[in-house]
């Protein structure tokens, strides 16, 4: 019964919420929350694909790989078919997966999305969990209006009550960054001027004409493209 409920929760609970970039996972105490998330949410690519891990000493390794959006760590498929985390994570420089490049940084794995000369626009995909909501008296919990919850599911005329006693909110975010000369920069006016020193006038004018939210990829991308 539990497997049926979990499958339905993945299909009906997480997928719609993912489109909104936030949601609530209903789970039993002590559960591994990753089991409730689709692979397309908890990894940067939906399926493990052939890739190259390049290490700081210039050596590299090939094989089916992926990057966790939760842990910001590299996973690979072992010879026995199991997903395993890379043990020498601290030695990784970058990861390439089917033509997509991810630079390791203190902010996480930054995917390079667009380039202009020696400058690149990048982004980190991340899943963050927030404080768990515990059930109080009469099994009730306080809910916020920004998330959607599911307490029971109906299948073939039968109502199933999920074995749930905790709710954990999560958020999927795509955070923008700038990359130049092997360094990662937070996107803000100061760092745009540092990365584009010869385009000070254009940056000043764009920021005057547009209300740029430097935490939103689409806003940062629009400014980046305007400087091309």
- The total number of structural domains is 2
Q: How far is the N terminus from the C terminus? A: 56 Å
Largest sheet: 12 strands, antiparallel
Q: What is the N-to-C order of secondary-structure elements (H for helix, E for strand)?
A: HEHEEEEEEEEEEEEEHHH
Number of strands: 14
Q: Which structural class do the helices and strands define? A: alpha+beta
Q: Per the principal axes of the C-alpha atoms, what is the gross shape? A: flat
| SS strand fraction | 35-45%
The percent range for helix content is 10-25%
pLDDT below 50 for ≥5 consecutive residues: which ranges?
1-20, 136-153, 159-163
Keywords:
228 residues, twelve-stranded antiparallel sheet, alpha+beta, disordered N terminus, 2 domains
Could you characterize what this model shows?
The structure is a single chain. The protein is α+β, with helices and mostly antiparallel strands and 228 residues long. The protein has two domains: 2-185, no CATH class; 187-228, no CATH class. Helix content is 21%, strand content 39%. It has helices at 2-19, 39-42, 189-195, 200-209, 217-226, and strands spanning 22-27, 49-55, 60-67, 74-77, 83-85, 92-97, 100-105, 108-116, 119-129, 133-134, 152-155, 158-161, 166-180, 183-185. The strands form two sheets. Strands 1, 2, 3, 4, 5, 6, 7, 8, 9, 10, 13 and 14 form a twelve-stranded antiparallel beta sheet that branches. It has a two-stranded antiparallel ribbon with strand order 11-12. The chain starts with a helix and ends with a helix.
């Amino acid at each position: 019964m539990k497997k049926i409920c979990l499958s339905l929760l993945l299909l009906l609970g997480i997928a719609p919420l993912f489109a909104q970039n936030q949601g609530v996972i209903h789970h039993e105490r002590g559960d591994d929350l990753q089991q409730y998330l689709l692979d397309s949410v908890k990894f940067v690519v939906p399926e493990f694909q052939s890739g190259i891990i390049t290490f700081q000493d210039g050596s590299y390794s090939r094989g089916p790989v992926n990057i966790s959006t939760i842990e910001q760590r590299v996973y690979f498929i072992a010879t026995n078919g199991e997903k395993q985390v890379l043990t020498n994570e601290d030695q990784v420089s970058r990861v390439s997966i089917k033509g997509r490049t991810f630079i390791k940084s203190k902010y996480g794995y930054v995917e390079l999305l667009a380039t202009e000369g020696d400058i690149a626009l990048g982004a980190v995909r991340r899943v963050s969990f927030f404080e768990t909501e515990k059930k109080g008296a009469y099994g009730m919990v306080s809910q916020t209006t920004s998330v959607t919850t599911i307490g029971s599911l109906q299948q073939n005329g039968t109502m199933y009550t999920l074995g749930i006693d905790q709710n954990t909110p999560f958020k999927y975010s795509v955070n923008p960054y700038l990359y130049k000369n092997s360094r990662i920069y937070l996107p803000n006016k100061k760092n745009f001027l540092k990365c584009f020193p010869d385009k000070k006038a254009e940056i000043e004018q764009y920021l005057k004409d547009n209300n740029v939210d430097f935490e939103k990829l689409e806003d940062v991308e629009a400014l980046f493209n305007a400087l091309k």
